[in-house]
Amino acid sequence: MRFIITFFASYIFMILYVACSSSNATQLEHIRILEIDIANDRKHLNSIDIHELNNNIKVAELNLLKLENKKLDSIAVELIYFQYRDYLNCINDIQTCVLENNRLKKELDINTIQLSSIKLDYQSSNKGRLDLDTHLIHETKFIQQTSKSIMALIENCNNQGDQFDSLNKSIENIIHER
Hints:
The chain is mainly alpha-helical. The chain contains 5 helices and no strands. It has helices at residues 2-20, 24-46, 50-69, 74-124, 130-177. The longest helix is centred in the middle third of the chain and has 51 residues, at 74-124. 18% of the residues are buried.
């Protein structure tokens, strides 16, 4: 937590420095750092094994079909209800992870385009641009928010993958027992 606070404090300091500075070189250096951040975010996002998550969804769909075809009596259904509900919730969360991954990839693309446009405007200008400084500050905030969302997604996807393995084993045991 302390790292995050220090990280954001340094960004706020950098934002204030950029806003108060009249040299475009400082803003261009800030943009270079943000470009590195975006590249790192892209690597982090690509570390999520979407193929495995999609395979988990396919396995779950097959197991749910098998479970429905078992024609369980009401007592058996009552016994597995909580596992079944948790399993469905986990599958929904995995599907959300896949969709969120795609959304964040698009967001990174938009951040890259926006940052490139701002960079080009700074490079084209010989004097300080307060109007661009404001855009750079806003874009910095967007990039930071995207970074936080990516880290949260990675943690969520990892948790859902682990939870799926456990729940899937239980569901498969029920399918093969009855």
